[in-house]
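Hi support team,

I've been running sequence recovery on a batch of backbones for a student project. Most finish fine, but this one hangs at about 90% for roughly twenty minutes before it completes. I'm not sure whether the input is malformed or the queue is just slow. I've pasted the structure tokens below so you can try to reproduce it. Let me know if you need the job ID as well.

Thanks,
M.K.
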């Protein structure tokens, strides 16, 4: 029974550690935003009692909210623009076809092929799936099924 408990707790710890990345992806930018706000406008924080749990909880909620907003703006605008310009200039990534305005179709082909290849490490596969999430969101508006069907 003791062996079962350790393997069960090991699974929980592994799950927590593997999901910390997602938490820090949203919280860390929020902490930086709050720190920058405090550095530039300390008068906004004069009433904050950092020894009070409710104040710390409100700060955590603000950090998570600000970080999530920053993440969304960064991921859904900046990264997409960089990906699209890399695509336009034929840098490494989805291959352009002769037809213009086929970015979403080419992205669908690239992601599908990248996720099917066996020689890609699991960590890289996870990153491809994460980066492709925005492409999937964009493809949804055009119909994911039709985009994938056109690539076959």
């Amino acid at each position: 029974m003791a062996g079962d408990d350790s393997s069960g707790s090991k699974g929980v710890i592994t799950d927590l550690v593997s999901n910390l990345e997602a938490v820090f992806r949203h919280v860390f930018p929020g902490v930086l935003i709050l720190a920058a706000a405090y550095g530039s406008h300390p008068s906004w924080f004069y009433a904050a009692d950092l020894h009070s749990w409710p104040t710390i909880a409100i700060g955590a909620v603000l950090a998570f909210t600000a970080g999530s907003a920053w993440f969304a703006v960064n991921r859904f605008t900046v990264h997409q623009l960089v990906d699209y310009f890399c695509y336009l200039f034929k840098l490494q990534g989805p291959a352009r076809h002769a037809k213009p305005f086929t970015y979403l179709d080419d992205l669908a082909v690239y992601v599908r092929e990248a996720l099917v290849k066996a020689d890609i490490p699991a960590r890289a596969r996870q990153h491809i799936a994460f980066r492709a999430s925005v492409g999937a969101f964009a493809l949804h508006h055009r119909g994911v099924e039709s985009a994938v069907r056109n690539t076959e």
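--
Follow-up from support: It reproduced on our side and the slowdown came from queue contention, not your input. Residues 1-40+51-89 form one domain. No action needed from you.
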